Amino acid sequence: MKEVIAVVRMNMMNRTKQALTDAGIDGFFAHEAQGRGVGLANPHVLEGAASGYEEAAALLGEKGKLYPKRMISVVVPDKAVKSVVKTLIEVNQTGKPGDGKIFVMPMTDAVRVRTAESGEKSII
Question: What's the pTM value of the predicted model, to 2 decimals?
Answer without folding.
Answer: 0.79
